[in-house]
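Lab notes, practical 5.
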Amino acid sequence: MTLLKDKVAVITGAGGGIGRGIARCYAREGAAVVVAEINEDTGVQVERELKELGGRALFVRTDVMRKEAVQGAVRAAVDAFGGLDILVNNAFVPSPNVLLEDKTDEMLAQTLNSTLWATWWAMQAALPLMRARGGGRIINFTSIDVEVGAWQHADYNSGKSAVVGLTRSAAAEWGRFNITANAIAPTAMGATFHKLAAEVPGFAEKSAAARPLGRSGDPELDIGPVAVFLGSEMSRYVTGETLHVDGGLHLPGYNSRPPHVPVREY
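Output from the prediction step:
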């Protein structure tokens, strides 16, 4: 399969979950992948997996909270593989699940750094490299949490809302360079899902039942192919879009009110 033959991609947070699923799909489709991941053990493991799949891969330890690290991961694509065609901004650093009134400035700063700022830094670093290749694909990540106003995620919702605005701005302004910019709003069985499934009885079954398709998403089988589409020539006339890849969860939405919080407080 060669939908991404001779393409070079940087994927942040590719050491696990959705990032790993996308990286594996990209390797199968012929792309060279920079595995931009902060965890050295998982990053090295994914690099090994991609090579076993017949792909080209390079692990670059990347803390997306640091501008220099993000820029370094983007430069690594040129140093290792000669250029950059696809940028996938997937990584983020979660903050504690607490109510809006209990969120601290430090929590907000951390979340904005790992969502908005990390995406901003990577996109600006990628621009000259993509222009040199005659165009490119930018794939950012948002969340259904933004749409439902998910409780205890006020900082995350703010950061992901900003990423959507940035994505649309890039689509409008960088189309003149033959660069598309789109966002994915996914839900899948990543690390957080498996943690909750292990800790909360019935969580996995309830999560699957909430989706019209009746199952939870697989990072590689369900999210990865959409990222392949957005990174390939198949999506050459698609830009500024947000694609829900969530088994239809965005249709009914969900209620995230914690059970301990009363409906009315005065």
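Observations recorded by the TA: Residues 105-132 form the longest helix (28 residues). Strands lie at 8-12, 32-37, 56-61, 86-89, 136-141, 179-186, 242-245.
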